[in-house]
Design brief:
This protein is an alpha+beta fold. The chain has eleven helices and 17 strands. It binds adenosine-5'-triphosphate and magnesium ion (MG).
């Protein structure tokens, strides 16, 4: 890898996507003296605070050229940026993480194959590209003898694009219910709980991980992240190694979220990777309040070629998402002196929409 000079303060960070993750990246970039330009196809909270923004479709190459001319590096806050847009930009300006990470993360079957080819355990799965694959997948499922989950290969988030499959006989109906689009059937895993690793990889290849939070979901949406997770230290180290292995294999630069199922110490495979997120991750929001350097700052440090900051945690933390009308309670939340309150400034609360988060800190216990 060529040693590129770090970007100096006043350089412009280009961010694809204008949501809350972009907003928190803009804030972190500003702390280091950078300016940010946001490219989005719609209004989002990051547009309120970025130094400049462009609104346009993500596949409008002329508009992307205009964006490329205005920035020194490009990153993104969501994994569904069209790969063609990232590749187009990468011919003009560094794009970090690179388009390869997007290509892998955008398609669940590619992602699962990529991870298991690295020798990293994932839930048993069968890729279903079309109705012709259903018979083979039903046979695979019959061998599992447990229910499965069918997930569309592309564009799923917050549990959307998923259907439970009780047994092989239900597979065809589940496939049809998701629109008969390419999908992945996964064995339902009886995990103890879920954790995620927020790994960060610098331009020079150095790696660091935050302590892995324990995550709870409700209705397919992340509700709570807790550190320490209660996972034994050796397993926590394994989890960090797994995330580092994936980041290195992707020649990744920036923060990478790796979601994992923890099956318990006694299991032959205590950790299974569920999926990766090539970006800062909701389960890492507690790092803003419980660490010297947040995931957002470390992402900015990595993509600008700066040395990584410390990922050390100074407090225990519990992060809770404010979803939909949860955020209407802001007067009470603001009055609770034990909470760090983060409101994203979205104009309208809709069911399932992430409006903010709160982090409760406690003195470090472990
Ligand atoms: P998100 O955007 O929240 O990460 P997603 O739509 O990308 O969600 P997944 O992360 O694959 O989808 O699944 C959402 C949640 O559903 C998981 O965090 C987990 O709680 C549950 N789940 C997914 N796959 C399995 C599985 N194979 N076995 C058991 N539970 C699962
Ligand atoms: Mg997930």
């Amino acid at each position: 890898m060529t040693a590129a000079a770090p970007l100096a303060p006043h350089s412009v960070i280009g961010i694809l996507g204008g949501g809350q993750l972009a907003k928190m990246l803009v804030q972190a970039a500003a702390e280091l003296g950078f300016r940010s330009a946001v490219y989005s196809d719609d209004w989002g909270p990051a547009l309120d605070i970025a130094a400049s923004h462009l609104i346009g479709p993500y596949d409008n190459l002329a508009r992307l050229d205009e964006f490329a001319r205005a920035v020194d590096v490009v990153t993104y806050e969501f994994e569904n940026v069209p790969v063609i847009a990232a590749e187009h930009l990468a011919r003009r300006v560094p794009v970090r993480p690179g388009p390869q990470a997007l290509r892998v993360a955008q398609d669940r079957s590619t992602e699962k194959a990529f991870i298991s080819d690295l020798g990293i355990p994932v839930a048993p799965f069968a890729a279903i590209r079309d109705a012709g694959d259903l018979a083979a997948a039903s046979k695979t499922m019959a061998d599992w003898k447990v229910p499965g989950i069918l997930k569309t290969s592309r564009l799923g988030y917050d549990g959307k694009g998923q259907a439970g499959v009780a047994g092989p006989d239900d597979l065809a109906a589940a496939f049809a219910s998701l629109g008969s689009v390419p999908a992945v059937l996964e064995r339902r895993i009886d995990f103890a709980f879920e954790i995620s690793v927020l790994a960060v990889r610098a331009l020079d290849g150095s790696l660091a991980c935050y302590d892995a939070p324990r995550n709870t979901h409700e209705g397919g949406i992340l509700r709570r992240s807790l550190v320490p997770s209660g996972v034994p230290a050796v397993i926590e180290a394994q989890a960090c190694n797994v995330a580092g292995h994936i980041a290195t294999a992707l020649d990744y630069v920036g923060v990478l979220g790796v979601e994992m199922f923890y099956l318990g110490e006694q299991s032959a495979t205590p950790l299974l990777v569920n999926e990766i997120a090539p970006r800062v991750h909701n389960s890492g929001h507690w790092t803003m309040d419980a660490c010297a350097v947040s995931q957002f700052e470390n992402h900015i440090r990595a993509i600008t070629g700066w040395p990584l900051g410390s990922t050390a945690r100074h407090s225990d933390a519990e992060m809770r998402n404010l979803i939909g009308h949860d955020a209407d309670d802001w007067p009470a939340l603001a009055a609770d002196r034990d909470l760090c309150l983060h409101l994203y400034g979205k104009r309208e609360a809709r069911p399932g929409r992430k409006m903010g988060h709160v982090t409760r800190l406690a003195p470090r216990s472990a």
